[in-house]
């Protein structure tokens, strides 16, 4: 074969390979960027478990106070204080080191509305109780139509599957701290709204996320009640 022809073929092969490498690299970068909230959440959890890091919610604080004034020093490597982003309404799940603002009174049947809320934090369902009130306080996160849309929303509930009966969930509302203990976990079909519509005089906190993580096939419900009312019962509930 003529040398010039061979050189031309080799040059074309090199160009095609270079373009292919850039496409592969670009795809990897795009996927990593898209799913970074998930990757970050899981990586942080793995590292925390290896280090034995434990999280605790900050003490109650009024909306006019500084959390820094209440912490009384730096956190140790294995004892970290989680500060609520907004003392007016925030949630802290100590087991998974999650802390996020809660957007109040979000219409769970209006996709455009809850999509915007979930980009900023966890949504409190319109019409459900607020902390301290009798009834169900219903909080939800990342309900979306495809796996590629899930990472666009707040990743605070991605690790909710790791929360167990007896774990503590803390909600800050109007400067007050409300402690709950998990009493039950349920996996339900998306159409099951029994907890959402439940009428009760009890104070019940329900956390909802999609299950398995990154899908919209089912719902994981983590149900909790005020710590003072169930503190002596959670041991038997977990067995």
UniProtKB/TrEMBL annotation:
What protein is this chain from? Sortase
What species is given as this protein's source?
A: Candidatus Curtissbacteria bacterium RIFCSPHIGHO2_02_FULL_42_15
User: Membrane-crossing residues?
Assistant: 21-42
MF annotations from Gene Ontology = hydrolase activity
Q: Which Gene3D superfamilies match?
A: Sortase (2.40.260.10)
Superkingdom is: Bacteria
Keywords from the UniProt entry: Hydrolase, Membrane, Transmembrane, Transmembrane helix
InterPro entries assigned: Sortase, Sortase_dom-sf
NCBIfam families linked: sortase_fam
The family database entries (SUPFAM superfamilies) matched by this protein are listed as: Sortase
Q: Does the keyword Membrane apply?
A: yes
């Amino acid at each position: 074969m003529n040398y010039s022809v061979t050189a031309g073929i080799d040059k074309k092969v090199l160009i095609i390979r270079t373009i292919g490498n850039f496409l592969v690299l670009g795809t990897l970068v795009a996927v990593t960027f898209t799913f970074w909230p998930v990757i970050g959440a899981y990586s942080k959890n793995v590292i925390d478990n290896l280090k034995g890091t434990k999280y605790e919610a900050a003490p109650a604080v009024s909306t006019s106070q500084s959390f820094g004034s209440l912490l009384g020093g730096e956190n140790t490597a294995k004892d970290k204080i989680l500060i609520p982003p907004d003392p007016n309404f925030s949630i802290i799940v100590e087991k998974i080191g999650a802390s996020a603002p809660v957007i109040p009174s979000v219409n769970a049947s209006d996709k455009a509305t809850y999509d915007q809320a979930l980009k900023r934090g966890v949504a409190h369902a319109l019409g459900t109780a607020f902390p301290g009130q009798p009834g169900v306080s219903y909080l939800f996160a990342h309900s979306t139509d495809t796996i590629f849309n899930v990472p666009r929303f707040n990743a605070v509930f991605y690790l909710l599957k790791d929360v167990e009966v007896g774990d503590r969930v803390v909600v800050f509302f109007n400067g007050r701290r409300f402690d709950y203990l998990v009493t039950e976990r349920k996996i339900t079909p998306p159409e099951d709204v029994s907890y959402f519509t439940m009428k009760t005089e009890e104070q019940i906190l329900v956390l909802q996320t999609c299950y398995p993580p990154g899908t919209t096939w089912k719902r994981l419900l983590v149900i909790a009640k005020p710590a003072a009312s169930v503190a002596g019962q959670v041991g038997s509930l977990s067995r």
